[in-house]
Every structure is written in C-alpha cells, then in structure tokens.
Amino acid sequence: MKEIAIEELKLGECLSKDIYNDLGNIILSQGTELEARHIEYFRNHGINYVYIDEPSAQSQKSDTSRVIASNKYRDLNSNYAIVLDRFKKMYYQIQNKDFGFDVKTIEEDIRPLVDILLSDNDILGSMRLLSFKESYHFTHAVNVSMLGAMLGKWLGLDKQTIYTIAIAGLLHDVGKTQVPQEILFKTDRLSFVELDLVRSHAKLGYEMLKENPSISKEVLAAILFHHERSDGSGYPSGLKEEQTPYIARIIGVVDVFDAITSDRIYKKGVSSFRAFNILKDESFRGLDPAISDVFMSNIASFFINNRVKLNDGRVGEVVYVNKFALNRPLVKVKDSFIDLSSDYTLDIEEVLSHQH
C-alpha cells in the first residue's frame, strides 16, 4: 500500500483504502479499480492523494475471485455518489437560473449506474445497499431515475429508451428549484395557495429547460406530464391516460413508489409491501395499470427469501408471493407458515434483509 498523488494515478490501479465524503459516507471503497471519471471526481472534490495497492498486491487480487456482493456494493455506491453529485451541481445551477448545461455529460455519468442495475433485477436489494445521508430532494431524483430505468427493462424497452427514462427520472422535479424552500419543507398541511405553488413545479421545470437543445422532447414531456393521471385528475393539463406520453406514465408510477417508501422530515416511509396497497389504489384512480402491474409483479418476485418484520413484532421469511395478492405473501415464522392473504390482522411492517 502506498500513498500517491492524483496526477500520478494510472487507470486500473486499485484503491487500498476507502474514500469518504464530508458526511462520512463511503464514496469509493477499497478495491475499486480506478477509471477516468473517478480521477475527475477526486479533482473536483479537492482529493489530492489516495492510497493504492502495490503491483504485487494488485496481481494477487486479480487472481483471487472477488465477492460479488461486496463488488456490487462498491460499484453501486460509487456510481450513485457520482450521479448524486452531478445532480446536486445541476440543481443549484438551475436554482440560479442557469439552464445551459449539457445533458450528455449527465448521461455519461448515469449509464454506468443504470448498467449495474440492469445486470441484476433486484432493484430494492440494490437500493438497500446504498448509504447516503442526503436531502430527500436529491436522493428522490436519483432513486426515481434508477427505478424508472429498471421498470423500462421490465417493460421490454430498448437500452437507449431506458437511458432516456433515467435522465427523465433525474430531472422530473427540477421545477421545485423555483418553489420556496419553506413550502417544500413544510411539515404542516399546505394551504390551497401553497399546494398550487408546489404543483406548478411540473410546468416550471418544462418552461425552464425547453430551450436547452441537449434535452430531448421525451424528457421534457416527462418533466411536464409526470403528474397527469388516467382519469384526468392530474396536473398541469388534466390529460387522460392515452393522451399522456408513455415515459411520463412510467415516471408517474416510480415517482409515487419512491415518495411513499422514502423517509422525509415529516413522515417515515412505508414498507415496500404497504406501498403496494397505495400503488393499487392509485392505479384505480389514475396511474397506468398496465405499467404499475409490471412494476409491482417484478418487485414482488424479489421479496422471496427476504426476512421481514410483521406488525406483531415477529420476524419471518417470505417463501411465496401470490400474484393475486402481491402485498400479502406466505411468511414462514420459525416452524409455522402465515398466509397474509387470508389473515388480515397481520401485515408486513418492514423488509429487513435478503437471506443468502
């Protein structure tokens, strides 16, 4: 292990010590093989020296098969950190009425993150590996980007469309940069005037970015229409399902899912299982049911083998998911089986972890 200046780093060298950000989160883990974007990240953040493995240690490492889970954790967190950082810079740029950024640089950062996710369908398992203490407004954008990309794969869309969805997810709420912070972070019920201000974010985001030549029409449409609903009850235009662009409908589903499962200042996120009930209700009211069904059935299949905590405090393992009651699976607790689809006194409070 030796300390080396950033200027002397070579691509492919391995970090021998974790690198942390100011909040104490690991942004690059020990063992990461350095790429050009990592080195650029160091320069942008004033990291002048890092520790790398000696050549002998590196060749020894390449001979040893690495643990897949820790690789995934490392790659996921480092790519998430890069996208999150890029989005924050862009968010503040937009807040200061500078709309001239190039979306291609965002896509370059977002592709590696999307590629990791698409190689392993277990999106919720992946998101549980993330460890970022950051404002909801920033993490929500990256989460919606990730969930949207995954849903794009499940819907059988091509790779370029999936990247477009990921960018739309990242940018869908940028209009909130122009909504007063005290309203965005208000913990009490919003007045009608305040609610209208919050709802204006869809139109504001579109108006601010429509002159930017690097942003596609599909992404702009998703920013403008992701709050439209099939029954015409959405905003800003009260469009019906068939009038709402497809990518906007995809973002609509994952936006709701992440919003209800995320912790906020004023509420704790609900479990993924509880979110199913809400998504079902929303599908009846206005989310595209074909899209939300694909999303829920794929997510549900990855709950099998997960340890879960029931609302009576007992911990068990999901052994079977009933496709007609996705949110009420069969759970094994010690030596007994509990069928939640027939016992409505019990519910899943929390998904704890995946059994290996």
Structure, explained:
By secondary structure, this protein is α+β, with helices and mostly antiparallel strands. The protein has three domains: 1-65, Molybdopterin biosynthesis moea protein, domain 2; 67-302, Hypothetical protein af1432 (Orthogonal Bundle); 303-356. It is built from 14 helices and nine strands. The protein has helices at 36-44, 55-63, 68-95, 103-118, 123-128, 136-154, 159-171, 181-184, 192-199, 201-209, 217-225, 246-261, 272-285, 289-301; strands at 2-5, 19-20, 26-28, 49-52, 306-310, 315-322, 325-333, 336-339, 348-354. Strands 8-7-6-5-9 form a five-stranded antiparallel beta sheet. A two-stranded antiparallel ribbon has the order 1-4. It is globular. The two termini are 32 Å apart.
Write down the secondary-structure element order.
EEEHEHHHHHHHHHHHHHEEEEE
CATH superfamily of the largest domain: Hypothetical protein af1432
What would CATH call the architecture of the largest domain?
Orthogonal Bundle
- Proportion in β-strands: 5-15%
Radius of gyration: 22 Å
Number of domains: 3
Tell me how many strands there are. Answer: 9
Low-confidence stretches: 61-66
Range of helix content: 40-55%
* CATH fold name of the largest domain: Hypothetical protein af1432
Strand order in the sheet with the most strands: 8-7-6-5-9
Report the structural category. Answer: alpha+beta
Distance between the termini: 32 Å
